[in-house]
Amino acid sequence: MLRLKILASVIPLAIVALFARGEFLAGPRPCIEISGTSVQIAALSWQAHRHVSFTSDPGRATVRVQISDDAEAADFTVIDDIDTAEAGACESNAPPLLVTISRKPSASDPVIYLSRDGPADYRIFVSSTSFSLLDAAALIVSARGDRHRIEAASL
């Protein structure tokens, strides 16, 4: 009977520990390093330091990201041909800046319009098994940390 009580008390603690560490979803998450700071997609939204959202309405966007068909024309390029992330690719002495894609953004969060047409604040090229277009756009906008004026976007 004592074993059952111990087991019954350990299981909830293990579940709480998994959620507290954010390791409930195992595996590598998209991550980039810019100027010695790593920026990573958060496993759980409440852990994120920054939130971004996406819109299909260019009028609501605060940042425009263009999908480029040419890696050389892009401001941010992700190319990989492996099934797993490279070990140590995004390691830093400081903890990573965690980013999440939010469905209910606050007024201060960047709202990204992702399209193949210009004008754009950033151009991305993604050919990856571990990064989606949304991940790449969220990471580059969060890494920059600023909000662009759409009127100032380049062609």
General description of the model:
The protein has 155 residues and is α/β, with parallel strands linked by helices. An eight-stranded mixed sheet has the order 1-2-6-3-7-4-8-5, with helices on one face. The radius of gyration is 19 Å and the shape is elongated. The longest helix has 20 residues, at 2-21. A hairpin with a 2-residue loop joins strand 1 and strand 2 (37-41). The chain has helices spanning 2-21, 133-144; strands at 31-34, 37-41, 50-55, 63-67, 76-79, 97-101, 111-115, 122-127. The protein is built from two helices and eight strands. The relative contact order is 0.25. The protein has one domain (28-152).
Whole-number total of structural domains = 1
Q: What's the story with the biggest beta sheet? A: 8 strands, mixed
Q: Can you tell me the overall shape?
A: elongated
Q: Please state how the strands of the largest beta sheet are arranged side by side.
A: 1-2-6-3-7-4-8-5
Average pLDDT number = 77
Structural Rg: 19 Å
Query: Can you tell me the residue ranges where pLDDT is under 50 for at least 5 consecutive residues?
Result: 149-155
Helix/strand order, N-terminal first: HEEEEEEEEH
What class, by secondary structure content?
alpha/beta
Number of helices: 2
Span between termini: 72 Å
> Percent range for helical residues?
10-25%
